[in-house]
Amino acid sequence: MPESRDKLEFPVADEAPDGPAVTGYDQQHLATYLRLLDADANGAPWGEVASIVLHIDPIAEPKRAHRAWESHLKRARWMVEHGYRHLLSDGAQI
């Protein structure tokens, strides 16, 4: 029987990294970043994305959920614009 999706995902921090280098956290959350970018491209509401992708309840914790969604989406965009170069040059396993 296949494992549940939750067992395959890494816990999400309240804020994504924002430094100039790809971190281990970034590598663990590549799928999360892709899901955020896809949801953003499709115009999904941030609260729905926070709940489904980040597993943070936007009703119970609206500030935390919004901050996490915003920082992770920002990091996802950075990965598309800059971070991918680090992954390619470091020979990271994707």
How would you describe this structure to a colleague?
- α4 (46-52) packs across α5 (62-90).
- The protein is 61% helix and 0% strand.
- It has one domain (19-90).
- It contains 5 helices and no strands.
Could you list some keywords that capture this structure?
94 residues, globular, mainly alpha, 5 helices
Q: How many strands, what sense, and barrel or not for the largest sheet?
A: none
What is the beta-strand fraction? under 5%
State mean pLDDT (0 to 100 scale): 87
**Overall radius of gyration:** 13 Å
* Quaternary organisation of the protein chains: single chain
The DSSP helix count reads: 5
Number of strands: 0
Mass-distribution shape: globular
- The figure for the number of domains is 1
Q: pLDDT below 50 for ≥5 consecutive residues: which ranges?
A: 1-5
Q: Report the helical percentage.
A: 55-70%
Sheet/helix structural class: mainly alpha
Order of helices and strands: HHHHH
**Amino- and carboxy-terminal Cα gap:** 25 Å
